[in-house]
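User: Teach me something about this protein's shape.
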Amino acid sequence: MPVLVALLGVCLLGLVLLWRRIGGVQGRLDRITRGEDGRSLQGVLETHLGRVVEVQSDVVDLARRTANLEVEGRRAFQRIGLVRFNPFEDTGGNQSFALALLDAEEDGIIISSLHSRGATRIYAKAIAAGRPEAALSAEESEALDLARDATGGRVAIRGRAAAGPPAAGRGGG
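Assistant: First, the predicted structure itself:
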């Protein structure tokens, strides 16, 4: 009988030690699985899953908006060529110009301005798929070539000195 009591005492002591050890492990597990605000791991996971769903919705919305911007961006003038020149000997400075504005598909316009002492005339010609609707002057052709070569939204500009009388084809819109 005393042996049984001794064994029972040892078992109770072992049970108390195991109980304390389990309590310590449980405390560490609670600290590990608790979120910043002291909630349980389940609460933290539910919060994160809710955020994942929100982010997924935001990503879908951003993808849609990006696709729209890409389509609209291709239609915006993004290549620009400008040639300044002096078509007449009686005027000073390169106040006349040919300006080519193209989108990604090489659709756009060429605007030309011929400045003389008595008047300034402005002409516009449509460009579709890189082809002009009407014959181009040398300056307009140069502006179109500059626009085709322009990249990254940069403006390509060239100025020319006065050259004798106006070239054939210039001025007619």
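Now, about its shape. The chain has three domains: 1-33, 36-75, 79-159. The radius of gyration is 40 Å. If you'd like, I can walk through any region in more detail.
User: That's plenty for now, thanks!
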